[in-house]
Specification:
By secondary structure, the chain is of the alpha/beta class. Helix content is about 40%, strand content about 20%. Helix 9 (about 260-270) crosses helix 10.
């Protein structure tokens, strides 16, 4: 099947650029293809967005909210079609993937309800004058989304910029772009022409041309730290731009000896997001285990990993599918090989799952390393795959030192029954999100975002909406 991209309300199904063939990572069969956007296509999309934005910004927040809610309803109506396509295109398991459709629609509705919070304030700067602030949109926003949740990130991340009065040019991930075309159809049907433009393509030239475009003053990116740095550099070469980044993580899961160990094992597995083959920035891939419970937890986690049901992503009973692409499979396997060379002990996994069903496709068995030290690559670098590592610690200071000994600071989980320990831990850990006796959950209205190389800015909350507006100060003097 040939899928298109949306530019100025029209679908482009072919152009002079090479097409991208999207491959089912479980079977290696083609699931469809999309055209790639040239720098000229990017310019046309941005200019169309700038034109549409002027009218959109003049609409009341109530009018904008109504259209976002209509888009949310249309997403739910086509949810089954979206899920079938996304499972085949990404390798994510359909049993858990259904939540992505509901989350995407839910975020559109959530931000639609925040419209009246786009307000300024009055300041008594003088006795006779009126001094106040207004919030106004940037104009055209570029949103670039990753391969692990392509539809959810694409649809949900339209919400805040549109509600704030901006237009959006969205770039899909090159390895799983197909559901982006379905989103484009829904946007074309339910939003003003040119307000949302959906482009397919690689980082070069498509992504690069988009972040460099002089009419794009606001950029939101979700993906790897390396690409985030590249976007910052490229954007800075053409203007002063507001860039928010939701990047990677090497997230510590710290277990104190007083924790409920059965709950710890269950949460450690759940926090790894195996339904996405561990391909999640928030995956709790570093188990920091007190020496008194280390061996017990490692053994129990290994048993749980061995019991996970790997299989067809379209089978609702499958608990894990393949990783997303051949290039990513090679990267994950290189991390596994490096860990073994550096002396980590392979407890389980480390290769393809056994059986002829997994001979084709980008499969990696759920993997656990033990005897890992903080200086090993597997303890410092994000794998973004179904790979966990266990490290021992003896006292609190050592646990926090290990937890903070990476360039990342996205999430952390702390397991203890002691309130004092929990309070010390949440202060000591360098991370944007900390769970106490939990892992992995997102709560609408609270910010999700990282410190250090894990990103800039918080999403999923009022601050995200406000970040897509600019403050203007007005002084009325008599």
């Amino acid at each position: 099947m040939q899928f298109g991209m949306l530019i100025d309300g029209e679908f482009v199904t072919a152009n002079a650029e090479p097409r991208i063939d999207s491959i089912n990572p479980a079977t290696l069969a083609s699931t469809g293809s999309v055209p790639t956007a040239s720098a000229t296509d990017v310019d046309r999309a941005v200019r169309a967005a700038a034109h549409a934005q002027r009218d959109w910004a003049q609409r009341s927040v109530w009018e904008r909210a109504a259209q976002l809610r209509t888009l949310a309803a249309s997403i739910r109506a086509r949810g089954t079609e979206i899920l079938q396509l996304e499972a085949a295109d990404t390798g994510n398991t359909i049993g858990k993937l259904g939540a992505d459709v509901q989350i995407a629609a839910g975020y559109l509705e959530y931000f639609a309800g925040l419209g009246s919070e786009l307000k300024g304030e009055t300041i008594p700067a003088t006795a006779r004058g009126l001094h106040f602030t207004l919030r106004e949109p940037y104009g055209v926003v570029a949103r670039i989304v990753p391969f692990n949740h392509p539809f959810m990130f694409a649809a949900a991340h339209l919400a805040a910029p549109l509600m704030a009065g901006n237009a959006v040019v969205l770039k899909t991930p090159e390895t799983s772009p197909l559901s982006g075309s379905l989103l484009a159809e829904l946007c074309a049907a339910h939003l003003p022409r040119g307000l949302v433009n959906v482009l397919h393509g690689y980082g070069m030239p498509t992504g690069d041309a988009l972040v460099r475009h002089p009419l794009v003053r606001r950029i939101g990116f979700t993906g790897s730290a390396a690409t985030g740095l590249a976007i910052q550099r490229a954007a800075a070469e053409t203007g002063v731009k507001h860039v928010s980044l939701e990047l990677g993580g090497k997230n510590p899961f710290i277990v104190f000896p007083d924790a409920d160990l059965d709950a710890v094992v269950t949460a450690a597995i759940a926090g790894m997001n195996f339904s996405w083959a561990g391909q999640s920035c928030g995956s709790t891939s570093r188990l920091l285990l007190h020496e008194s419970v280390h061996d017990d937890i490692v053994a129990k986690v290994a048993l749980r990993l061995g019991a996970l049901k790997l299989g067809d992503p379209l089978d609702p009973t499958s608990e894990m599918g393949p990783v997303n692409s051949a290039r990513h499979h090679e990267r994950v396997m290189q991390h596994i090989a490096t860990a073994q060379v550096e002396g980590a002990r392979l407890v389980t996994g480390g290769d393809r799952p056994p059986g002829t069903a997994f001979a084709r496709g980008h499969w990696v068995a759920p993997t656990l390393f033990a005897d890992v030290t903080p200086t090993m690559s597997i303890a410092r670098e994000e794998v973004f795959g179904p790979v966990m590592c266990a490290l021992r610690w003896r006292d609190e200071a050592e646990a926090y030192a290990i937890a903070n000994a990476t360039d990342y600071g996205l999430t952390a989980a702390v397991w203890t029954r002691d309130l004092g320990t929990a309070m010390r831990a949440m202060r000591a850990i360098d991370a944007g999100t900390v769970w106490i006796n939990a892992a992995g959950q997102h709560f609408v209205g609270t910010p999700f975002g990282g410190w250090k190389d894990s990103g800039l800015g918080g999403e999923e909350c009022l601050d995200e909406l406000l970040s897509y507006s600019q403050l203007k100060a007005v002084h009325v003097l008599s």
